[in-house]
Automatic annotation (TrEMBL):
Gene3D superfamilies: Phosphorylase Kinase, domain 1, Transferase(Phosphotransferase) domain 1. Residues 24-138 form the Protein kinase domain. It comes from Streptomyces minutiscleroticus. The lineage of its organism: Bacteria, Bacillati, Actinomycetota, Actinomycetes, Kitasatosporales. This is Protein kinase domain-containing protein. It holds the Pfam family Pkinase. One of its GO terms (molecular function) is ATP binding. InterPro entries: Kinase-like_dom_sf, Prot_kinase_dom. It comes from the Bacteria.
Length: 138
């Protein structure tokens, strides 16, 4: 990500849209879906950029969605792989819930699909197979 490498001096805490996890300042929105939004944020104490996934504000009052979001964070905390983003913390507050995780540079899947177009299942499986072989070799 251009301009986001390493650490930086933290700006004053601010929010792109609604509640922000205490100790972080939102920098840029990465994605928004029906259930959540993901933003690049800056950790004030360390100056480290992270990705924060916020549960949609309307859904944060639903016990079922909160449970599923909490389970997602638990699953992430149980995984230890160089191919899976690391969980830094899970936060629940009266304002909402958030998963703070490692920021990984790369293109969004949606952008890749827009660029390359629709992929037939066989081509997708071949690409996945090559990716898995490369990862197991490295």
């Amino acid at each position: 990500m251009a301009g986001l490498e390493g650490t930086a001096r933290p700006p004053s805490a601010r929010s792109i849209d609604g509640w922000t996890v205490p100790g972080y300042a939102d920098v840029q929105e990465l994605a928004r879906g029906g259930n959540d939004r993901v933003v690049i944020s800056l950790h004030a104490a360390t100056g480290q950029y992270v990705a924060i996934k916020y549960l949609n504000e309307e859904l944060s009052t639903s016990p079922a969605f909160c449970t599923a979001f909490r389970q997602e964070a638990k699953l992430l905390s149980d995984l230890n792989s160089p191919h899976v983003t690391r969980l830094y913390e899970y936060v629940e507050a009266p304002q909402g819930a958030a998963i703070v995780m490692e920021l990984v540079a790369g293109a969004a899947l949606r952008a890749l699909l827009r660029q390359a177009g629709r992929t037939e299942p066989e081509a997708a499986l071949m690409r996945q197979r090559r990716t898995l072989r490369a990862r197991s070799a490295g």
